[in-house]
Structures are given as structure tokens and as C-alpha cells.
Amino acid sequence: MSGVDAALAAKRPGRDFDVLIIGGSAGAFSVLRTLLPALRAPQLLAIVVLHQAPNGGDLANLFQGVAGLPCVTVEDKLPATPGSIYFAPAGYHLLIERDGTFALSVDAPVNWSRPSIDVSFDSAADVYGARLAALILTGASDDGARGMLNIRKVGGLTIAQDPAGAEVPLMPTAAIREAAPRAVLSIDQLSALFTSWSTPEASPA
């Protein structure tokens, strides 16, 4: 896989990690339109937190039929189960409880945002620890950088979109500066990685 080291490409959901959480802001919607069709790992729990206006649209509905897994808008107390992509609703912070359910909060915005990527990343790190993978995409703030650092500290897998190809590079640049993610990948490399994660391993001869 060009530009992606073999150890990263060899990782598999369900074996090396159980949860993928993605954060992004300006420009991330179009990136996800490219990436999510390649994500077809039914053993994976995927969570997407995008900055939206308080009256933003239903992202799960917009991605349903495009993404490789069913898309769900998070509701309070909804069980977080593998095989779907869960989207944070506009106007709420998204958290994960230790009993494996989602929680929604209307606490004050963090980094001027609700949902805040940092809030969700911190919550996911507390619950999933080293079984968590995180990706920061294009965006116009440093939200997510602190949360990604916390994920790295608990042993999670951390990845940032290459700022050189980002519509707004501030968010991945901050994540790279503050959290030193495991990999920095272009959109094409991320798509290839998602495809790799969704491909069953070959059985031993």
C-alpha cells in the first residue's frame, strides 16, 4: 500500500482495535464522502464527530446508502454496537458511557463547538483505551488535538489527514503538533487503509 507502512496496513478491526472515532470540521464532509464507502468492517464500531451549526442537518441520513456500513444518528442511551457508523447530532456533545451506551450533553461548547471533538475523543479514550483508533480530518480549529494526545497516551492508534491536502489544514496541523500521531496520510492513503481494514485476512495455507 503506497505510502502506508506495512505494520499499519496489517492492523485489523476486532483484532488490533475495536473502535474508530473520526473528527473533522470545514471540508471534512467531502472527505468522508470519499472515505466511508471504503469502510466495510462489520466488526468495527465507527463514530463520526463533525462540527455543525446548532440547526445542522441529519448527517447519518446524508451518508446512508453512500457509506459501507449502516449510518445512525446518536440518541441518548443508544447502545454503541459494532457494524454501524454513528454520527454526533448537531447541538450536542457526544460521550460514551462505560456500559457501552452513548450519552448526549448540552454542556457549554468546548473550543467554540458542540459537538466538540475533544470531548468525544476524551470520553472514548477513557472507555476504550488501547482498543481505540482515532482520525483527525480537515478543519478550521485545533479541536481534537488534546483529545488525540489523550488517545495516544492510553495506547490508541492515532492518525491525521495530511495537511498538505486538507481544504483547511489548521485542525490536522494542530493534531500533528500537539499529539504526534502514529501516521499522517493523504486522502488516497486513508481510503486504501480503510479498504485494507475491511478486507478479511487470508487464511493460513
Verbal overview:
- The chain has helices spanning 6-9, 28-35, 59-63, 117-128, 145-153, 170-179, 187-197; strands at 19-24, 45-50, 71-73, 85-87, 93-96, 102-105, 132-136, 157-161, 183-185.
- It is α/β, with parallel strands linked by helices and 205 residues long.
- It has one domain (14-194): Methylesterase CheB, C-terminal domain (Rossmann fold).
- The strands form two sheets. A seven-stranded parallel beta sheet has the order 3-4-2-1-7-8-9.
- Strand 5 and strand 6 form a beta hairpin.
- It is globular, with a radius of gyration of 15 Å.
- 44% of the residues are buried.
Rounded to the nearest angstrom, the distance between the terminal CA atoms is 23 Å
Give the class-level CATH name: Alpha Beta
CATH architecture descriptor: 3-Layer(aba) Sandwich
Fraction of residues in H or I helices: 25-40%
The CATH topology is Rossmann fold
Spatial shape? globular
How do the strands of the widest beta sheet line up side by side? 3-4-2-1-7-8-9
If you compute it from the alpha carbons, what radius of gyration comes out, rounded to the nearest whole angstrom? 15 Å
Q: How many extended strands?
A: 9
Q: Low-confidence runs (pLDDT<50, min 5 residues)?
A: none
**Biggest sheet: strands, sense, closure?**
7 strands, parallel
Structural class: alpha/beta
